[in-house]
């Protein structure tokens, strides 16, 4: 069993495993609904992007930090990991510590998701990113990399097509190529300007 069509293709093509079925990871919508309305002191005084994930190389938060130099908005990053200090140094070095905030790990990320305006996801690779489903369950528009497995299936319902340049408007969000700061900035500006 694979949790995405991208992972199924990998098992078939690279490992020769046959008879592979796909069952996407589930999320508990009732639990999310009960948690997302909890009170929090989290305040957003301008357009707010949010992301959730381990602070490691694969999640590529460095790309988000680079993009924020060109964006008039806030970015909140929920998660912890080995690259926390490196990310904070990058934020400080770029002089944008007034608009990017490392919140650390949170037991209830849903109450933060509901306060934000857009979920942004910069992973280099994924299997099936549950966090995209969770952001959708909190009624957020999504900008995501079109990495090998997961985001395209969730946002466009198209199993294996990939883009190599520019951005793609999908049924449930915007996809952009991996590690492409220019198109990430383009997508972020589009979401800020166009509430539809």
Description:
The protein has 196 residues and is α/β, with parallel strands linked by helices. The chain is 34% helix and 14% strand. It has helices at residues 5-15, 29-36, 61-67, 84-93, 110-113, 130-137, 151-155, 181-193, and strands at residues 48-52, 74-78, 100-104, 118-121, 142-145, 168-169, 174-176. A seven-stranded mixed beta sheet has the order 3-2-1-4-5-7-6, sandwiched between helices. The model has no long low-confidence stretch (mean pLDDT 91).
Q: Which terms would index this structure?
A:
single chain; 196 residues; alpha/beta; 7-stranded mixed β-sheet; 8 helices; globular
In short:
The chain has 196 residues and is of the alpha/beta class. The chain is 34% helix and 14% strand. It has a 7-stranded mixed sheet with strand order 3-2-1-4-5-7-6, sandwiched between helices.
SSE inventory with pairings:
Blueprint: H1 5-15, H2 29-36, E1 48-52, H3 61-67, E2 74-78, H4 84-93, E3 100-104, H5 110-113, E4 118-121, H6 130-137, E5 142-145, H7 151-155, E6 168-169, E7 174-176, H8 181-193
Helix pairs in contact: 3-8
- How is the main sheet built? 7 strands, mixed
Distance between the termini: 37 Å
Bin the strand percentage.
5-15%
| Cα gyration radius (Å) | 17 Å
Note the run of SSEs as H and E.
HHEHEHEHEHEHEEH
Low-confidence regions: none
Strand order of the largest sheet: 3-2-1-4-5-7-6
Number of strands: 7
Class inferred from helices and paired strands: alpha/beta
Total count of helical runs of at least 4 residues: 8
Q: Roughly what is the average pLDDT, rounded to an integer?
A: 91
Overall outline = globular
Binned, the helix content reads: 25-40%
